[in-house]
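pinned: reference chain
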Amino acid sequence: MDLPRTILETIDLRSFSNLWFWIALAVMWSTASHWVIGVPWDMVLRARRKGGTLQQDVEDLARIYTSRLLFIGRVSGTWLMALVTGGLSGMWVLGFWYGIEFFQAVFLLVGPLSLVGLMSLRAARRIEAGENTGDALFRRLRRHRFNTQAIGLVSIFFTAMWGMFQNLSASVLGN
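pinned: its structure tokens
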């Protein structure tokens, strides 16, 4: 019995037919829409309803995470952008040009999430520029969460369609 072959048959490296891929996709978008620029969404909702120290906590968290995100962007933004775009380009070429399913799956996970990262940086700049307290902050966080959910919805739909296409193609070609 060949152990590596048995392990590979058990794991099933075809990404779109693997349950773990779909669980990772759901958890990733759920987490991305819950943590809005580092602030938990349930905390934002409670702060909007009750105000007071809860609102101060949300404003403090937003200030901390905004400062952190902008610091990273200012210090290493150029290098990060080069690495991310290079990595995404490489994944796209390996996945869609050469047809390697694993890289297609990783690109469909990471590509849309990189857009959310850019949106987070933009929202952080606006928060730092003056939308850092009260209703202005809540509006900015709500808008950012809505846009994140919209990107996630489109991403999940497109990934599901592409995954079904890949699975159908594999079943037709496999027979």
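why pinned: The chain has a mean pLDDT of 90. The beta strands are 35-36, 39-40.
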